[in-house]
Design goal:
430 residues, Rossmann fold, N-(1-d-carboxylethyl)-l-norvaline Dehydrogenase, domain 2, 3 domains, 5-stranded parallel beta sheet, 13 strands, elongated
Length: 430
């Protein structure tokens, strides 16, 4: 397969052209022939014009690429190597939602041919590729997996907003259904991955590696969040403590904060779901999840407490929330825990304005039911800076005083304004 691809005798197709799929497709398209497939025809039309609907890639990323964007299933029949990169979210009960993944598997199955390769990049629990996706491929294609066609798994490591660690510079884990498929898949990814490829022992090993990467981060941040809860009761500045502890050579530098997005706040539930299916009830992982998922309510509660402390009635108060994306310097609002802060404040009957220089107001309204304010006023009782966008880091104490009434309150979740302590602004950070 590898030789056919590099000689451009066969094509590679990427199924799903979001934050993960599009960078992969464009990277491959600089080396081999690629078909970029997405079921959203509007997104496809934008990509044909060299526009990334996710606002992550510049138009220059589309240059010198041998790629055809399409929403036409028939076009996929021209491909022989399929990369599936669709979302794998969780539902309202924190149960893995495999509908996009299984739908993509059915799409590929309809065009699958003898000798083809199918590699999944979506985050899943160990066993999902072989136990859930493979049967669909076999049933709808009439072919036998591992014999008539090969499958593999290579977990995505795309970091939205990171312009330094781009796809080419991050080591890629790959796995196949046998020695031959592993080598063919590895060589194919080595075409675009400058940092190198790690050949995993099995598909299940690669799946497990992906979910624990983010589970580890989730637990470390949960520890920081729990420490911030404890230190808040003691009236100790968490960041001062972390600065002191961080002088030890083996102290890991994590910080408290809201844990949203499509990875850290989601992936652990894929592992715990599978563990519970196997009869084991995870304790440490779920405990960390409970702490992190509870931080939005904690922030809202502290904000209301500061309002009351300053003789401001919550019902008559107006709060500005700055930043609604799940992390700094991106437009991605998926699984944003800032939205939970907003909803919690509204439950306290607080009037809330929300602003974000990167997010799209219509997308926010579609996802969370509220729009972004177009004009920031000057009569806020408190301001919550929830996301560390670079533009927010430059704001001065004078700016915040100019948009707030007397007894201004600044909820500085990312500790951006530690030098505001003597500026007549009451500041609180996690």
């Amino acid at each position: 397969m590898y030789n056919y691809l590099i000689n451009k005798d066969k094509k590679l197709a990427v199924i799903g052209l979001g934050y993960v799929g599009l960078p992969i497709a464009l990277a491959f398209a600089k080396k081999i022939k690629v078909i970029g497939f997405d079921i959203n025809s509007e997104r496809v039309e934008l990509m044909k014009q060299g526009i990334d609907p996710s606002k992550e890639l510049e138009s220059s990323a589309f240059e010198a690429c041998d790629i055809e964007f399409t929403a036409d299933l028939e076009k996929l029949r021209e491909a022989n190597f399929f990369v599936v990169a669709v979302p794998t979210p969780i539902d309202s009960h924190n149960i893995p939602d495999l509908k996009p993944l299984l739908s993509a598997s059915r799409t590929v199955a309809k065009v699958l041919k003898t000798g083809d390769y199918v590699v999944f990049e979506s985050t899943v629990y160990p066993g999902c590729t072989e136990d859930d996706c493979l049967p669909i491929l076999e049933e709808l294609s009439g072919l036998k997996g591992r014999v008539d066609f090969k499958i593999g798994y290579s977990p995505e490591r795309i970091n939205p907003g990171d312009k330094e660690r781009t796809i080419e510079k991050i080591i890629k884990v790959v796995a196949g259904c046998g020695a031959e498929s592993l080598e063919e898949i590895a060589k194919t990814y080595e075409l675009i991955i400058e940092a190198g490829v790690h050949r995993a022992a099995s598909i299940k090993v690669a799946e497990a590696a992906k979910v624990i990467e983010n589970t580890q981060r989730d637990l470390n941040i949960a520890l920081m969040n729990e420490l911030s809860l404890i230190f808040d009761l003691m009236d100790i500045d968490t960041y001062d403590v972390l600065a002191a502890a961080g002088t030890k050579w083996n102290f890991l530098k994590f910080f408290p904060g809201l844990v949203g997005g499509h990875c850290i706040g989601v992936d652990p539930y894929y592992l715990t779901y599978k563990a519970q299916q196997m009869g084991y009830n995870p304790q440490v992982i779920l405990s960390g999840r409970r702490i992190n998922d509870g931080m939005s309510d904690h922030v809202a509660k502290k904000t209301v407490q500061f309002l009351i402390k300053n003789d401001k009635s919550p019902k008559k108060s107006k709060v500005l929330v700055m930043g609604v994306t799940f992390k700094e310097n991106v437009a991605d609002i998926r699984n944003s825990k800032v939205a939970d802060v907003v909803n919690a404040l509204k439950e306290y009957m607080v009037n809330v304005d929300i602003t974000d220089i990167h997010a799209d107001s219509d997308e926010v309204h579609h996802e969370y039911g509220f729009k972004l304010t177009e004009n920031i006023g000057n009569e806020y009782d408190a301001v919550i800076v929830a996301v560390a966008h670079d533009e927010y880091k430059q704001l001065s104490a004078d700016y915040f005083r100019s948009i707030m009434k007397e007894n201004p309150i600044l909820i500085d979740l990312k500790n951006l304004y530690g030098n505001f302590n003597n500026t007549e602004i009451e500041r609180w950070s996690l």
